[in-house]
Amino acid sequence: MPIKIPDQLPASDILRQERIFIMSESRATTQMIRPLKVLILNLMPKKIETETQFLRLLSNSPLQVDIELLRIDDRPSKNTPEEHLNNFYRQFDMVKNRNFDGLIITGAPLGLVQFEDVAYWEHLQTVMEWANNHVTSSLYVCWAAQAGLKLLYDLPKRTRKEKLSGVYQHDVINEFHPIVRGFDDSFLAPHSRYADFSPDYLSEHTDLDLLATSADAGVYLASTKDKRHVFVTGHPEYDAQTLHTEYSRDLAEGMDPAIPLNYYPNDNPDNKPIASWRSHGHLLFANWLNYCVYQQTPYDLEHFSLDKFTRDD
């Protein structure tokens, strides 16, 4: 089944060229089906690139998904045309009285910034608290995972001395959990962050189900018991070239970055990188849509209630 996105969204042409089944708003009006309504809060600077990456992963499901894009505030963007934001993104006031099946909060380049120094920190807290009463399941990616742990568990910001950048091996540690259903015992996924997610620390200070960890990267995937909050500390949505773009940017800015680990063939930046995590990323998002959203959400979103999540699964 397709994802439903606005007719003129730039991602439409890219995804069509990749033979991904998308449905325009005009065609969707003739479909006699209740699609899942998923809201994406895009915190990344290059919003068109990021929205395309997430839409690509959300498309690989038998479920019809109705996508809406949310911006965190109305400050001008340095990397995205204002016309694009005005045409395709909602302000929070436009959605706060509605319910959604799913919410995705993307990463943000704020790894070395304290939470209280983030310009939109209070607004982000408002959105996350709103989601507790209006969203069936929320997916927090990379920096958003750190922010979500602060809000839900009051965990302080933990920062690595060196940036974690590259493609890392992970092991499934809870093989019967539905979110990792179909995963290989060991799989690859990219990371690009300063945040530290120690398995021992999260086990000691939260009641999260830890689902996949890495000896080098720490916790990669975790969930609350009711699957309403899912944390992904890496970037399964990244394109093959994304880490290369970040590495080249940091080089140009004189930051002397380390070469992303296990990314370039023979660890040589002159070699074209290969995406070794694509199948994992699609399966992760398909499982989240199926087991955390579709099988949990009410048919009538107007009847969303927290009572249904108090039962033992």
Automatic annotation (TrEMBL):
Localisation: Cytoplasm
Keywords assigned: Acyltransferase, Amino-acid biosynthesis, Cytoplasm, Methionine biosynthesis, Transferase
Catalytic machinery residues: C142 (acyl-thioester intermediate), H235 (proton acceptor), E237
Pathway field: Amino-acid biosynthesis; L-methionine biosynthesis via de novo pathway; O-succinyl-L-homoserine from L-homoserine: step 1/1
Classification via Pfam families: HTS
Residues annotated as site: Important for substrate specificity: S192
GO MF, any single term: homoserine O-succinyltransferase activity
CDD domains: GATase1_HTS
Entry EC no(s): 2.3.1.46
Name of the protein: Homoserine O-succinyltransferase
UniProt organism field: Vibrio algicola
Biological classification of the source: Bacteria, Pseudomonadati, Pseudomonadota, Gammaproteobacteria, Vibrionales
Protein encoded by which gene: metA
